[in-house]
Amino acid sequence: EVHLVESGGGLVQPGGSLRLSCAASGFTFSSHWMSWVRQAPGKGLDWVANIKGDGSEKKYVDSVEGRFTISRDNAENSLYLQMNSLRAEDTALYFCARYTIAATVTDYWGQGTLVTVSS
Amino acid sequence: IQMTQSPSTLSASVGDRVTITCRASQTISNWVAWYQQTPGKAPKVLISGASRLESGVPSRFSGSGSGTEFTLTISSLQPDDFATYYCQQHGSYPITFGQGTRLEIK
Fold first, then answer.
1. What is the pLDDT of residue B106?
2. Is A102 on the interface with B (CB under 8 A)?
3. Of A27, A39, A48, A96, which residue has the fewest beta carbons closer than 10 angstroms?
């Protein structure tokens, strides 16, 4: 059974950093694109970043480009999001999600980890 | 690519047929997915490729459209269907979602 479990969220001051992790199990992790999607409190879904199975391709939404870095460790079946220079508008529940083998759609999501940026 | 979803809120009763529409700001072929989210839960994919029903999703859900206009239809609402629905385009980066449609009980 596919499981995705996020961790690493918390309260951080503006300008600070956090590293989110997503532990994956139940599938061949290295075969799948992975994604981070966030949801501000009471708001809709916003895509943040994608990474290819072998880590060779990475894509970001403009608002986080240069501040956030997506990465993965296929030996550890883990996905990461390094978040630097955090802003109040980055406050959200951050989900990791798995793409299908065909990379057409995200078919499994974790339950999310909450990041709060506030002084 | 902006995805404009309508309506924002929809009030309906069990057994009703409802349709949610998503309009893309430019042509995206059929690279559209639909997700359902209930409070406190992660989104669940319902439809991919504009019309392909994902595994395990009840057949009362259906998707259609291509180009710039897409619809999600629920043929006969069940109590579990009262949730928020999002369209998503994944034809080009950045991937974008519609703003959501909250389906509430009338």
1. 85
2. no
3. A27
Amino acid A119 reads: S
What tokens were used for B16?
């009703």
The reply to whether residue A104 touches residue B35, judged by beta carbons under 8 angstroms, is no
Best mutation target, B45, B52, B57, B87, to test chain A (most A CBs within 10 A): B45
Which of B45, B49, B86 lies nearest to residue A44, judging by beta carbons? B86
Residues whose CB is less than 8 angstroms from the CB of residue A38 and which lie 6 or more positions away in sequence, other chains included? A45, A46, A48, A90, A92, A93, A94, A95, A115
Which residue does chain A place closest to B40, by CA atoms? Answer: A111
Q: How far is CA B77 from CA A99, B13, B33, B73, B81, in A?
A: 28, 7, 20, 10, 6
User: Model confidence at B62, in pLDDT bands (50, 70, 90)?
Assistant: very high
Q: What is the pLDDT of residues B12-56, one digit of tens each?
A: 999 999 999 999 999 988 999 999 999 989 999 999 999 999 999
Q: What is the pLDDT of residue B29?
A: 85
Measured in angstroms, the CA of B25 and the nearest CA of chain A are apart by: 17
Closest residue of chain A to B8, computed from CA coordinates = A44
Q: Is B101 on the interface with A (CB under 8 A)?
A: no
pLDDT tens-digit readout, A3-44: 999 999 999 999 999 999 999 999 999 999 999 999 999 999
Residue matched to tokens 């385009």 = B89
Q: Report, as an integer, the average pLDDT of B3-18.
A: 96
Amino acid type, A24: A
